[in-house]
Amino acid sequence: MRRLGAQQARNLHLAAQGLLAPPRRRARKDDVFAAIARMRVLQIDTIHVVARSPYLVLYSRLGRYAPHWLEELLAEGRIFECWAHEACFAPFVDHDLHRFHADAGRRGHWSMKSADRARDVHASGMAGLLEHIRANGAVKASEFERKDGAVGGGWWGWKDEKRWLEALFAHGELMIARRDNFQRVYDLAERVRAKARLLVQPDSVADEATMRRAFVLGAVRALGVTQSRWINDYFRSGGKLKDAELDRWVDAGELLRVEVDGWEKPGYVHAAHADLLEQAARGRLRATRSVLLSPFDPVVWDRERASMMFGFDYRIECYVPAPKRRYGYYVLPILHRGRLVGRLDAKAHRADGVFEVKALYLEPGVEADDSLAGALADAIGDCADWHATPQVRLGRSEPKALRTLLRTALAGRATA
Questions:
Q1: Residues 51-99: pLDDT tens digits?
Q2: Of 8, 24, 107, 393, whose CA is between 20 and 30 Å from 139?
Q3: Which Pfam families match (predicted)?
């Protein structure tokens, strides 16, 4: 087995995710699709105190790009929406894979349970809504008025039609044809698929064994290097795997088993990354990217994996009651040259053109020096400029000395 140092394992992971080095040129629309295809899933979240998560995940990899390209790819049918690692965008080539999983393997997921309950109670209303879409075309939930006058109840207080649309989406009878101002536009799945298939034919998934193989190999390739126990979390495709369950793919040469310093268990690398593995083992992968990450970035969405790989204990706190938060509402991990060196609580005040850093925290053992401050100033400043909030407002920092260094570095950017 090849042996990797801990940092080289991190670099291999970041290379597979498209985060090892800054982009070499300005992003194009095809680069947005390529980034999604590389990750295989792009998690959706609607919180936008900075930017909605899918846009920020893409920004971390591509630098400045036009966010509307994401919606265009969806409307064209090159990507589609599904339940995978929560709600996600995915390349349409994986449509049959995720649909097979939804029909055969996700019956216990909350989205399917809720959809089943809705159909049990509201079969007539859902059938009528489906016929309305068949006759009149795609719809948004906002087109339907609330009839009960209520504010709460249901899924997040949704009105009946919104719950029914989501249930029909979960069951595969509807798909998301496009998004208007990030609102889902629902249409018959057969119509959305027919349009998408003019561009690409999805990979066929005939049985559960094919599905399991696709999920395992796909997750390992997206992760670059991983322990067996982290694999299924990537697509939420099952429980934690054991090493023995991967023997068949190792024996077939599709997966490579490696040793990683500090890991008690072996790691796994997809055969397609054999060249990257060789570069990593020889110390030739250099991490040079410094950038802010989304709280829902694949690098940090598995808390155990982020802790083992980066020594970074990360919990998403936007769903935690305010008194129980340790770092803040929308906390962005800071990636700096192959390490997660800190986190910052941020908010973009778009109307005022202000990017507010409420608080910034370095990890224990990370030294606040001029070099780090300069890299952080560039990461924060570039992100603020992309948000059209070029004025950076700094709050508190830990350690306190970092605030002075960072203010100086940001001022230097402004006068450069």
A1: 999 999 999 999 999 999 999 999 999 999 999 989 999 999 999 999 9
A2: 107
A3: AlkZ-like
